[in-house]
Amino acid sequence: MPSPSNHSTAAPTRSRITRRSVLAGAALIAPLVLSACGGAQPGGATASGDGLSAWTLTGAQQSVFEDSFAAWSEAHPEQAISAEYFANDAYKEKIRTAVGSGNAPTLIFNWTGGTLADYVANEQVVDLTGRVNELGERVIPSIMQAGEVDGKQYAVPNNSTQPVILYFNEKLFEQVGAEPPTTWEETLDVVEKFKAEGITPFAVAGQSQWPYLMWIQYLTDRIGGPEVFQAIQDNEPDAWSHPAVTEALTKIQELVDAGAFGESYGSVVADNNADVALLHTDQAAMLLQGSWVYASFKTDAPEWFAEGNLGYTEFPGIEGGAGDPANVVGNPANFWSVSAAASEDQQQAAVDYLNEVNLDEGAVDALLDAGLVPSTTGAEEKIAAHEESDYLSFAYGMVQDAPNFQLSWDQALAPAQAQELLTKLAQIFQGTITPEEFVDAMNATIK
């Protein structure tokens, strides 16, 4: 995930707030397999010692990876890819341990940012500069650049671009006679309307903590612009003291006090799509989440989805804020790095896989069929012809038109800083610390 200097700079050409309803009768995705599919051995070797290994995530994109690995393995049986799939939170802990101990899989799934910088500093991943040109020709340049550290390529995109979107329940909005909010004042108004009807205004998976980030990221950007987090990422002294951060935290606690998230949001887990379920079971009206959950609505609630109950729009603007309302936060994509602990033959085979199969035409088709927006160039024609072109065009347009695409903060920062951020942000949502205490704690992490 890139620094702001690497984000798309295309001028916004669409309406700042776009409302769409998902087309009824869309094709469904086959249920995803959640169990592991093979065992990775130290150094990225498989059981035979000749093949490759890969670790990645369960969820909406698992089937896309499975197809990609199968295509490579069929063409290269002597270098077949053995894959394991993990829930998001469990994976992040496991991969850090594996990389640190020299037992990483050949292909390391990551989000770039501070973690990738650590891998590079410790010489744990391979320099791919000049070795993945074929792949580079089919990837959006700004997203490809997100895998660079100090001007060298250490990671490459492997899936969809993932803006954070405000999803909403069309049926519930019609029930209370409301429209999706476009301003902060409208946001507070719809919170009161849904509360009065006994409906949770916003679902959020508090137990997982990382979904909280989407709130502080959008609010800080809308209030102060992307320069605020850039100063934090650059470790400028007292960067967290910017008034936009304090105002964003204050607005979060304003929402909590207004009952915007209900009463049990701290026990909701993202890995099992519990936040998504609150929307499609008509218990919650809105959900701020990444574009990756769109496929979960299709698979988890096919009838509700097919009835056209899912809507989507951009995060509301803040009156008087310095940030462009077209700015986006999220993950430009996820990425593959190649383990330096793998043998030279395995490293070369991994590079060949990246050039030949990763994000090829088959992968692009699979991503679109899953309701995911590929991180490749020239996708407009395929999107326009797709039965879900309305949603796909919306999400693709968010990325293409965004003056700034801000990297997820827990990935942009060094791991120790990111963990402190998640801990303190959870306390903000719990109301156990003040914005000022949050700022002091985070300034103390700056080195």
Automatic annotation (TrEMBL):
Coiled coil: none annotated. Keywords: Signal. Residues 1-35 form the signal peptide. InterPro entries: Bact_solute-bd_prot1 (IPR050490), SBP (IPR006059), TAT_signal (IPR006311). It holds the Pfam family SBP_bac_8. PROSITE patterns: TAT (PS51318). This is Extracellular solute-binding protein. It comes from Zhihengliuella alba.
